[in-house]
Request: fold
Amino acid sequence: MTIHYLESAADPRVTDYTQLTDVHLRKLREPAEGMYIAESSRVLRRALAAGHQPRSFFLAEKWLDDLQDILRAYPDVPAFIGSAALLEEITGFHLHRGAMAAMQRPAPVPLPELLAGARRVAVLEDIVDHTNVGAIFRSAAALDIDAVLVSPRCGDPLYRRSVRVSMGTVFQVPWARLNSWPQDLHLLKDHGFTVAALELTDDAQDVDKVAAQNPEKLALVLGTEGAGMSAETLAAVDLAIKIPMRNGVDSLNVAAASAVAFWELRPRDELRN
Reply:
C-alpha cells in the first residue's frame, strides 16, 4: 500500500479534493481534468466494480481497516490520510461517509454502441439539479432503462452529489452527452426509437395508454425543473405522455415522475406473445 499522512491543507498532492463545495468550479474543472470524485465507501466500491480507475484515495485513519482490501488491490495508487479537521479544511465539509477517491473519468461511449440493443432510453433536457440527476439514474438502473442521454446543459451525472444520490448506480447505466440539442433527437429516430416527451400538453396521452401499446423502442425525454420542456424539443418529438394527477396536484418532481414513467413504460414481452 502507498499511504501518505497529510500535515498541511496546502499539500499539492491533494488538489483533486480542494474546494469540493464550489459547485460552479467543480463542474467545470472535473470534466476538463478527466476526473470525478467518488464519495463514501459504497460508492467507491461500485465505481471500482464498474472498472473505473482510481487516481488516489482520501480518508481519515479510522477508515483504514474498512478499505484495507481496496488499498491492497491498488498498491500503486496513493492513499492520503489526515485528521478529520485537516480533511475538512481541504474539502470544505466534514467527511462522515468513509473514504473518498479521485477517479479517472471513463472514456465516452459512442452513441451507436450505446444504443445497440437498447429498448428503453431516457433523455434529460437541461436538468441542472444534481440531486434530480442522481435520483433519475438510480431509477433508470432499477427499472430497465438501457441508456441515458443528457443534453449539453444538463448537470454532470458524475458530479459528486449526483453520484452520491444515485448510490453509485450511475456507474451501471451507460450514458452519453449529446452535442446538439434538440437536433440530436433525430439520431434516436434513425435507430428506430419512438421519441416521447413526458410533458403536460393538450394532446399528451396517458402513460398507461402508451404502455399498453408496448413500443419496441422508446426514448423518453424528461424536461428541466420549473420551466418544463422547451418548445423546440416538443416540436421534435413524436408524441407527449402524461401521468394523470389526482386531488388537484398538477405535476410530480421530475425524479419522481421518471420513476413512475420508467416502471409503467418498461418493455413487456408477454404482451407480444
